[in-house]
Design goal:
11 helices; binds 3-hydroxybutanoyl-coenzyme A; Rossmann fold; 15% strand; N-(1-d-carboxylethyl)-l-norvaline Dehydrogenase, domain 2; alpha/beta; single chain; two-stranded antiparallel ribbon; 2 domains; eight-stranded mixed beta sheet; globular; 10 strands
Length: 294
């Protein structure tokens, strides 16, 4: 089945990016949020990025207008009725996701495919709660979606070969590097990347270096674009803690457990870049490391 219209639930950090790259690839896009403020914020980010691409000469104004024109922002999930593929990028909370799918399952056409952009929750738990577990798969994007080339295409025990083929074709149309993976918490990238970020925090707790020293060392010594603490802030400390918790529940291994410093920062509402403070303070021109008071 050819996908023409894509629904994206959530216009936050990941959702706005998924909506943008889908529209850039030529899909008609319906994007929803829980409230107007969040929707406006997400759409403003897309418009800003399109504007910047025009300024840099990477996009004609007419192309940017056409991309924006393909995106229909709405607060009403019933607008997913005509979508061929619906991707959820809402809060990483299973109950919220199950509520969402219940609503969408009732309005979406029977032949539509569903996908979750979950970072770590098992795909099968969501798939099994819908009337179409065979047409349900995982599509895991990376932040920033516009920039990171990878799309993990995840097969749960119920996902049909047809649904996998749809996921792979969608990723290829987005010009992403697609990798098929199985429904195991963290899939490939987070299985390896999350313990690494958590170990960066443990290293800070154990005094191997300061925030800046740890980040500088990993950039200069291992060629990473960001050090583990800057990357944790970038991913979102609340998101990182919640992925770690899911993986710890699944595997019962210390390497996935959220270290105390991470739990304290999350409790304080210091979520990283998105809240203006995490391991760094983002209120000035340049991020400044803030001692988390170990
Ligand atoms: N949103 C959209 N586009 C962005 C962006 C953002 N937040 N940040 C940067 N970009 C774009 C810029 O517009 C620019 O585009 P252009 O080349 O077309 O002009 C390009 O990226 C490069 O921007 P900069 O020169 O400002 O930035 P850098 O070269 O320093 O790169 C970075 C920024 C791409 C974020 C780089 O530091 C990086 O790759 N960091 C690691 C990111 C990473 O590991 N992501 C995965 C996180 S894990 C995850 O997402 C899984 C989830 O489940 C948790």
């Amino acid at each position: 089945m050819e996908i023409k219209k894509v629904g994206v639930a959530g216009c936050g950090l990941m959702g706005h990016g998924i909506a943008q790259v889908s529209a850039e690839a030529g899909y008609e896009v319906v994007v929803t949020e829980l409230n107007q403020e969040n929707l406006d914020k997400g759409i403003a980010k897309i418009e800003k990025q399109l504007g910047r691409a025009v300024e840099k000469g990477k996009l004609e104004q007419s192309e940017a207008d056409a991309i924006r024109g393909r995106i229909n922002p709405t607060l009403h999930p019933h607008e997913f009725a005509e979508c061929d593929l619906v991707i959820e990028a809402i809060t990483e909370d299973l109950e919220m996701k199950l509520d969402f799918w219940k609503q969408v399952d009732e309005v979406a056409k029977p032949e539509a495919f569903f996908a979750t952009n979950t970072s770590s929750l098992p795909v099968i738990n969501q798939a099994a709660a819908t009337s179409r577990p065979d047409r349900f798969l995982g599509l895991h994007f990376f932040n920033p979606v516009q920039r990171m080339p990878l799309l993990e295409v995840i097969q749960s025990v119920t996902t049909s070969p047809e649904a996998m083929a749809v996921g792979m074709a969608y990723g290829e149309k987005l010009n992403k590097t697609t990798v098929e993976t199985r429904d195991k918490a963290g899939f490939i990238v987070n299985r390896l990347l999350v313990p690494y970020m958590l170990d960066g925090i443990r290293g800070l707790e154990e005094g191997i270096g300061s925030i800046e020293e740890i980040d500088t060392a990993m950039k200069a010594g291992a060629g990473h674009p960001m050090g583990p603490l800057a990357l944790s802030d970038f991913v979102g400390l609340d998101t990182l803690a919640s992925i770690g918790n899911v993986m710890f529940d699944e595997f019962r291994e210390r390497r996935f457990a959220a270290p105390p410093t991470l739990r304290k920062l999350v409790a304080a509402g210091f979520y990283g870049v998105k809240s203006g403070r995490g391991f760094y303070d983002y209120s000035g021109e340049k991020p400044v490391p803030v001692n988390p008071g170990l």
